[in-house]
Amino acid sequence: MDTAFAPEDIAFRDEVAAFFDSAFDKDIESRLSDSDPAVFQPAIIEWQKRLFDRGWIAPGWPVEYGGTGWDASKAFIFETERASRGIGDVTPFGLKMVGPVLYEFGTDEQKERFLPKILASDEWWCQGYSEPGSGSDLASLKTRAVRDGDDYVINGAKIWTTYAQFADWIFCLVRTSTEGKKQEGISFLLIDMHSPGIKVNPIVSIDAHHSLNEVEFKDVRVPVANRIGDENKGWTYAKALLAHERTAIAGVADSKRGVDLIKKFASAEVNGGTRLIDDPLFQKRLSDLELDLMALEFTELRVLASLASGGAPGAESSMLKITGTEIQQAVQELTMDVAAYFQGVLPKGAPDSEVLGHEFGPGAFTSYMYGRAATIYGGSNEVQKNIIAKAVLGL
Amino acid sequence: MNFEFSEEQVMLRDSVARYVQDDYDWETRVAIAGSEAGIDRAKWQTFAELGWLSIPFAEEHGGFGGGPLDVMVVMEELGKGLVLEPYLATVLLYGGLLQKGGSARQQEARIPSIIDGSSLGAFAYLERQSRFETSDVLTTATANDGGYALNGEKVVVFNGMSADQLIVSARTSGEQSDEQGISLFLVAADAEGIESVSYRMMDGQRVSNIVFKDVQVAADDLVGELDGGHALINAVARDANLALSAEALGIMAQLNAKTAEYARTREQFGVAIGKFQALQHRMVDTFISYEQTKSMLYRAVCALTDDQEDEDQAIHALRMMVDKAGKHIFGEAIQLHGGMGITDELDIGHYAKRLMMINTTFGNGDYHQAKFNALRYN
Q: Cβ B264–A3 below 8 Å, yes or no?
């Protein structure tokens, strides 16, 4: 057992730090945090292109498809350096979700068509899994795909579709059969969002922002060539994707950044002459939180190390998802408590926003409110527990 | 970065695991716990023959020269069998003090007899008033012509009943809770002026309260620096905290495995109770508690060997996690076993009681959290 960084890791860390320090300039930082979609969406693409140009856009991908080939140490260093600067993770839908499905299960034509544009952020992807009637029971989905010549004709609706309003493509689970088990009649399709018959309806979420949508499909024609793998086998590919997604949403490095900010704010806030950071009750809450986070960091490293030596993300990813999202919410909650009455200040872009201008108020509000979604999306934490109970505990 | 054990460590782990499984089954353990000494010297001799008693000692004294990870591997497996023989008291505390602070003469005279199994030791450091603070020492060592005279009382001395050698913490200067002014002395357990009472704790181990009345020790029975014994206590306590946490992890693994097995077979309302989602989710929570504790243990081992993290903070955090996860896991194990969970007959309660004792040894979760907070936030 050895977690010490080798000299080459130290050199790598310096290289990553130097890149972020120059590439993540004040201008891009400011545009990425703007709440105006006309500003932040192009900024995301611009930032991701900088990572792409450096060759670091897809650390988890195999080298032959444009990945980095990093071992667990290097992946950990990269994540830590990114998050410690407050730099958000890449938009996951192309790079962390459909990308891995494409290189694992796609045809050569599909890989050539889609992977380069995902890497270069030339096409924006969104995810079509949940439906108005199918949440945790995902396999009950009803959006129909009926074969007509070389096309499927799609009718139905997807929901909670993050950034569908920006998307060029959506990867969808659709029902191609109603025979047998419900999991066995599902296919995995790639659908052009610019196709006739697609309508995107915005959903404003609890943080007063619009990132979520409902996507309606009315007689949308999709070439059969856009199907991943076999007809009616989509569930298999979807599950592989979900395991990747759950590993990615533990968010350890970002939670560490959140704890660092809490310490910074709590050292500045004074209550009746005592710094918040010196309050024993506050210290207890903070160390309760840090304890779980320290442990999760090593749990994640253990999973990453096993992935790097050839393992596939399995039920461990469910554990990372559960614990990671619980910790994210605890970080957000403590941040809100540190922010005191500033927590009620609304984010930029909302009516009556940010007249007080306190540095952590609006960010705290947005993170805390939208953070409620983390224990729900990617398969609710209760569903993750069902998975572990079956797959690990054999119950 | 890797979390693999070396080939040697895998062999060591398998050797202890096999022994616990084949030669330390539950009936054997119950019999040993019920015997007068509460330990089995023949088994201890086997430990010696298998080389386990030599692990933390330097090669020059016939030891294996192992590190924290090797000790962890052994303790985790011993924990799975609730092994009663005094590995902590003799090898890690008494032996650890000699290894880290003993004079060449003391090491040459004492360490080989630990390794060959012929001598058992104990570390007498707790006092009635001291709670978890090892610097709270009222026992005195007064210099005289022949060396020092020891006076005072030590309580809950692990392995006090079977030990033939003791190391005692005593005040040679300073006030009651001063870290400075504590010295450690090596003394034979049957020295004149020693009176001890032995008793059984809830986890089956035998401990002693030992009264020292004008017990004469020689000047060269001082272990480590005069007045500087507390640093040595801290160093040994750090190793002990890691070892106890590894033992706790082994216990947690057993509790989770036994509970899941029970849930798979116990039927109520016509189905195995493991089919109930309310119980499944509770078992998933204890599974996560176990994995998080394991991560914390690995983290602390790496802190001790890699110098990347603050060692003391890593150990305090580990003990906080062991306390929290231990209570969570044994609590659920008892609950899910229903009425059988609260019997003396079933092993579940005994695993719980050992975890509870571990949580009082060298500080409970609150104690370590206060230390952790002071180091990290003040």
A: no
